[in-house]
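Minutes, project check-in
Item: structure for the 612-residue chain
Input as provided by the requester:
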Amino acid sequence: MGKYEGLVKDIIKNIGGKENINSLSHCVTRLRFVLNDESKANDDVLKNMDGVVTVIKSAGQYQVVIGNHVPDVYKEVCSQAGISGTATSKDAPKLSFKDKIFDTITGIFMPSIAAMTAVGMLKGFLALAVFLGWMNDSTGIYTLLYNISDALFLFMPVVIGYTSANKFGMDPMVGLVIGAALMYPGLQSVDLNIFGHVFNISYTGTVLPIILTNIVAAFLYKRLNKVIPDVVKTFFTPLIVIVICAPLGFLAIGPAANAIADWLLSIIMGVYSLSPIVAGIILGGLWQVMIMFGVHTVFAITAIVTLASGNPTPIFALIFTVSFAQTATVFAIWLKTKNKKLKSIALPAWISGIFGVTEPAIYGITLPRVKQFAITCIGGALGGAYIGAVGILHWQMAGMGIFAIPGFIKTDGDTGMILMHVGISLLISMGFAFIATMVTFKDEKVDSKEDSVKADNTKLEAEENVIAPIEGQVIPLSKVEDEAFAGGLLGNGVAIIPTVGKLRAPFNGTVTTLFPTLHAVGLTADNGMEMLIHIGFDTVKLNGEPFKARVKQGDYVKKGDLLLDFDIEKIKAAGCGIATPVIITNTDNYLDVVPKDITEAKFGDEIITVLS
């Protein structure tokens, strides 16, 4: 079995099966599905699945956050589902206008983001090498490498011609040809006298002209394919589309698109010029929130389009320090915490953050501790304010985290001064986040000496008995109606059909997860055991109405503390099942998790034996 084969099998199953996938793309940390029917996806199972950080529904996409290894998981999904990733099904889900815009932007630009970032980094490193005296910009090797780094941006209409045609449902090679025609060297910035009008246009490095042209081309392509006989349409449809749309794009659509692009750029720079400091505070402070909701893509794509056209952008500059504020906070937590589990996840999250991938830090560490998340946002805002105040910009595509630094370097600029400002912005952002976290962060308190001893333990004794958190009838987990729980995909345990609507803490520990709908609670014991209690099935749709929380996420609780009240009759009346799985989610850490031979349980009765 491949490394991610089991994970992907479970993901596909819980998004409603491969037939529910309309299209799929990925970014740095997320699988971005467009599903035919999102209601078929099992959000709770996916969110609690080993290997999945969280699930986010935004902009018409069902985003499954995986982490740094998402490219490998993406390939496995494509393989198991038998899809190309970018292909779309005929039964496309109905999206709002806003969601269609987001989906289109993502579908066009995401396939080329990795390569674009790579060559942008190369361009930045070359500028840095010249500044440091490692390379002379008059040498042949520099000329070769620089032109390699610039090639994708120069031929952007060809790349976007391919990806946009694919997104619009046209043969991507036809889109590629139209893109190549728009920027053919013999047609750039030369006088063309056509029907008495002189055209002098250049499309090198542009984006909008080919996208708008391919919208028209795809419309024509689909309709021609319906009327041209199958025998000849393979050749005649592309011929007619290219003959009509390439000149139309070059002479009419392209000039209009270039004018729109210039107008958008002037608006962006105009807003920035009004108050770069305020722009830095807003963008730097809210960037992580935008990432959480998946709406940051529009800003990123705007910056990419600006850079591709040969203009600098303030957007990437203003958000530069955000990931570093996150890493400084996580590093401070790693230094201060005595919780070995938190320490073990903080270190890899910190390393990922250095390279700009902050989802593991956000979802795994800071977001559940809201005060620390707020500190990272303030740190990002302070860094953005400084970047705005000194007016440095991004001049080329670059990577994330530390690899974003070359993007600031301008070949004919004062590199030393730029790097100094970059360093100061990092010092401000990281310094605030680190110091504020060191001052404010505290581990959850353990009140008794007995609890303190337990908190330092990372392994269970040879045998540990788990007590019932709910009173009711005990049934095997295999008998519940949900396949994920019944099959033990989330961990082993039992299910309880409650007779009393009260959920109590079965051990001393921390409330690590409390779903907004209050239908499920995740707990971590002082000895490291992790438990999920899922009250009923389909109860997520009740939006918390039958439930009343007595604790909040992050609270430390003692055995017997009341966690939730829930109305059993209301749950039944809503047509939801009431069988409640009680599972050990880190089952793999133990030799075995064995249900007790018991059919009725009151609070305090032993229901599970955990062997280590």
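Outcome recorded: The chain has a mean pLDDT of 82.
No further action items on this chain.
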